[in-house]
Design brief:
Two copies of one chain form a homodimer. Chain A has about 400 residues and is of the alpha+beta class. In chain A, about 35% of the residues lie in helices and about 25% in strands.
């Protein structure tokens, strides 16, 4: 597999075009790009993974319904930032349908072949006259095959500080397959309800069922590891479109190709998720929290989340202070029956606690590790075999001034 | 009932004395008071409610053990700030016992008649030579009956910005009974693991069983409402000591007196908890989140906590922005089966949503309410009868600059 950081992402696979335009969703006349389209002339099969929040935005329920039908095919994605079209009632549903039908009209396809996404403020109706004007411009650009991949990347951002894309290529007996992706997350200064939208494209062909299985596995090993506090926004969505633009159809009877393709999708999702975790206001570190030896995997995840969500733990990382005390305290309030005097704790491979006893001789080593930009915390509870991993970051200066030392 | 904000608190009931001294727990030589004693010459019965964190500090397990014995009586509490004596192994247990025995030696009582509390940094052994010097000074002060209530209040603070005390008096056929209290919380900028220590005293007499029942009820209606994210520190403790200094013993055969006493303890705990919620870095608002109509009380609490812990919701309150969208989104990720289009939402008594429809005509009213220093959010899920209440606050400027508008 060849992997490419950044770049055009979703338009790397053959036959995909993208665009991004300013249609002033927020009514601020700031010129920011805020609506985009991804288009494939060839029809695509599709799969999606969506928020499990009880409250789902209108476009989310719309896409879930479309993707339920195994016969659905798709020609385009339309996405706007600045307004989530969430908690907008019947009007919101009508507006989503209108977005789809406007895109379809310009692209001369069926409106059920368009997937719709929104992100931004909740509870405010979409400014539909401006949105439809934007759709006219954005579809025009993709029909003219403009090079709009970066404009699309920009159009979906909200509080993100940078665009986030990547792609991967694999060789198969039938030729090359490319997987591309783009994501918007949000500064980790707002861990709750930061909407995450990710779009993946490929020039392989695949049944919707196979795409769904592959996407689900990739999401479980990437975006779901970075979820903070189990919260999901009303709009979180990850979709994968496959247009068979390279002529190769994935087939379970060729498991080697499917496995390679899975690895490519995994790599793209992992890189995009990592970019989301690292794109926060003044985030300086990327941290993997690994728990092992828990009573169950579920218990391990609880402990990992308590650590990863502790403002005090994250603040201490920012201050390059290993502070295992705060970390163990956070682990303790997962209340899964942790026994302090049998805990082993490692910063990367360096033991900090063995059976609850600090290994003081290693202190300068832990401190150096926590000074780095990336490290792994491993906590072994030594109870049973349960394990989990969570990806997280440190906290911005604004949070930390007060907390970084005692 | 007569209620008194602030004041001497724990020394208001007859026969209690308190002190606070500087013994340089942190080794910073900053002169800050960091060790205190509450003393009653008459023996007290006692009751306590403690952290449920898997990791309990040495003094917590020590106090739990002492209070388990229904025959235990107590003469004093000793508490230090600056060091939590948590995750300190066998040395920590020995140091706790040493603190008790040193206090007992100076007060000429048995070491099992001393309760011990610590708060501060985790994982560092106590500086016992300085602690024992502090104990000598602090016990000296209470034996000489110095007026040290305020010094004690100060000695237990960590990141708190002010001392927090109150008292209540009730009239009974046998005479007056006083309940006094003091608490330390922490800036809500650190919602995780902010240790809360509360000490209550009364000049009534009561069996340990009755005290425990009364304290448990009061804590459930106060400190447990303000707990953030289910987290508790390694050291959280609330204790109530009863010395019968006024000569009146509470008796279940006089239910009117017991009820009045319960109300006094409730009032003291509620006021102290409220002071904790309001004492954060630049906290400007005190908010009660009430959920009703949930499938169960447990579900209602989940929803209340999701709202109360949402950084985006709290940030919007700080910006005096009602932002019901963020609030409903937060409620949705409790995932208890909430149905958006049957939600009723109120700011104080003013409806903002009825059956999920915004009552736009009331908008200026909600905005005025959220501009106030104190308001109540009521969310009715209209599913079943489950309800819950959580007390919380807005978020400091540092968190908010980035989030308060979109």
């Amino acid at each position: 597999m060849k992997f490419f950081e950044n770049g055009d992402g979703v338009t790397e696979p053959r036959g995909f075009f993208a665009s991004g335009v300013h249609c002033d969703v927020k009514g601020k006349k700031d010129g920011a790009l805020d609506l985009g389209v991804i288009y494939s002339k060839k029809p695509c099969t599709g799969a999606g993974v969506f928020t499990t929040n009880d409250v789902k935005a209108a476009p989310v329920t719309y896409c879930i319904d479309l993707l339920k039908n195994p016969k659905s095919t798709f020609h385009a994605v339309v996405a706007n930032s600045g307004n989530a079209n969430a908690c907008t009632g019947a009007q919101g549903d009508a507006d989503t349908k209108k977005m789809a039908s406007e895109v379809a009209r310009h692209l001369k396809v069926h409106s059920k072949e368009i997937l719709v996404f929104s992100t931004g403020r909740i509870g405010v109706p979409l400014p539909m006259s401006r949105i439809t004007a934007g759709i006219r411009d954005a579809t025009d650009d993709v029909l003219q095959e403009f090079d709009g991949a970066h404009a699309f990347q920009e159009a979906i951002l909200t509080s993100d500080t940078c665009t986030k894309s990547c792609s991967a290529k694999i060789e198969t007996p039938g030729g090359e397959i490319t997987v591309g992706g783009v994501v918007k997350g949000a500064g980790m200064i707002e861990p709750n309800m930061a909407t995450m939208l990710a779009f993946l494209t490929t020039d392989a062909g695949a049944s919707p069922e196979l795409l769904k299985t592959i996407l689900k596995q990739a999401v479980d090993q990437s975006f779901n590891l970075m979820t903070i506090d189990g919260d999901m926004s009303t709009n979180d969505s990850v979709v994968l479109l496959a247009n068979k633009g390279g002529g190769i159809k994935l087939d379970l009877e060729e498991p080697t190709v499917v496995r390679k393709f899975q690895e490519a999708v995994n790599a793209v999702c992992a890189a995009l998720a990592r970019k989301c975790v690292s794109d926060g206001e003044k985030v300086t570190k990327f941290v993997k929290v690994r728990i092992q030896g828990a009573p169950s995997d579920e218990d391990a995840e609880k402990v990992a989340r308590c650590i990863a969500n502790s403002l005090l733990v994250k603040s201490s990382w920012y201050g390059s202070d290993p502070n295992w005390g705060r970390l163990v305290d956070a682990a303790g309030y997962a209340k899964i029956g942790l026994i302090f005097d049998q805990l082993d704790l490692f910063y990367d491979d360096v033991p900090a606690l063995i059976n609850g006893e600090p290994i003081i001789g290693n202190k300068s080593q832990w401190q150096n590790i926590v000074k780095g930009k990336e490290f792994i915390i491993t906590l072994d509870l030594k109870i049973k075999k349960g394990k989990a991993e969570i990806w997280t970051n440190d906290l911005s200066e604004e949070y930390v001034n007060f907390n970084k030392s005692e």
